[in-house]
């Protein structure tokens, strides 16, 4: 049975077919110079590596099905795999070498399978599973996946001429276990640590050209704070926390780090025909679309919180306080206030065939209200329809 036919016959493989097509479409969208996301500095450059990690995770989960039927999806909520799958993939990656040592090489297994068939006139299911497991472990041992927590990385460094401080653009990833949503964080943060100011800021008030910084750099650029920043990011990136709370927590914990803008990109929900049940209207219409590659809808939200003012620090005889940021929350927008953000954008990506089905049913206005809509068609993405 071909993979395409098998995908049509199996709901789980149909899901993998549709999520694969969705991630491919999002990758095309992000790499397009005319993409609306290029209006946001560094958004595409930040997101693409995480998208590659997510695609690698799905490829590995798909391969795991060849010898294990344990795979669950958050059908009624996010449409993404449940957290246990993320944990198991990371566990498998860590134990791959030791498990491979206990499994014969592929040539031996194939010879044993041929011998089994000749002697027993039956299919060697157990040997086939061991071969599939070995091939799976070989592909994941050096893999880069969307793990529960992807360590921070600094991709830009410059100097704010107004404050004379160096600033960094640093990002990290989190797969939230409760909401079953992959999320990407990035922050523009100024650093007033005296050693970093002296090292990175030249006499002209610009970035010191004598300092070689081979970007990207693993972790926060400030080595004295990098480990603490990693620990903070892992503990303060849950979906249940608003971006305003995340930024305020950073500002509170690090006296010499001053977050000026924090962005959270939440991937999902994802809608797949015959699998997800997170929207009855969308599900009913997607079920009418024939091919799994065209029967999906992927949404994501970009949330931003920025500092409107830095309250100066105070040094006194009896007490002192460091500088603190005052973050802007757009209270005139109820959705922004609920999210705890200065601004936000909601996006939806959908194949042309599925969009046509929604349009024919008269549901496009209801489904895409408040969203920037992008249609995948013929290897291209059409926006602002």
Gyration radius (Cα, Å) is 24 Å
Q: What is the number of strand segments?
A: 12
Coarse shape:
globular
Helix content: 40-55%
Order of helices and strands: HHHHHHEEEHEHHEHEEEEHEHHEE
Distance between the termini: 39 Å
Per DSSP, the total helix count is: 13
Q: Strand portion, in percent?
A: 25-35%
| Largest sheet: number of strands, sense, barrel closure | 9 strands, mixed
Structure class: alpha+beta
Overall average pLDDT: 90
Low-confidence runs: 1-8
How would you explain this protein's 3D organization?
The chain is of the alpha+beta class and 385 residues long. It is built from 13 helices and twelve strands. Strand 11 and strand 12 form a beta hairpin. Helix 1 (3-9) packs across helix 2 (11-31). The longest helix is centred in the N-terminal third of the chain and has 22 residues, at 43-64. The radius of gyration is 24 Å and the shape is globular.
Topology (elements, then pairings):
Blueprint: H1 3-9, H2 11-31, H3 43-64, H4 83-101, H5 106-120, H6 125-140, E1 149-160, E2 165-176, E3 181-191, H7 194-200, E4 217-218, H8 223-235, H9 243-253, E5 257-272, H10 280-286, E6 296-311, E7 314-315, E8 320-321, E9 324-328, H11 334-339, E10 343-351, H12 352-360, H13 364-367, E11 372-377, E12 380-383
Parallel strand pairs: 10-11
Antiparallel strand pairs: 1-2, 2-3, 3-5, 5-6, 6-9, 6-10, 7-8, 11-12
Helix pairs in contact: 1-2, 2-3, 4-6, 5-6
Q: Which keywords apply here?
A:
single chain, 385 residues, alpha+beta, two-stranded antiparallel sheet, 41% helix, disordered N terminus
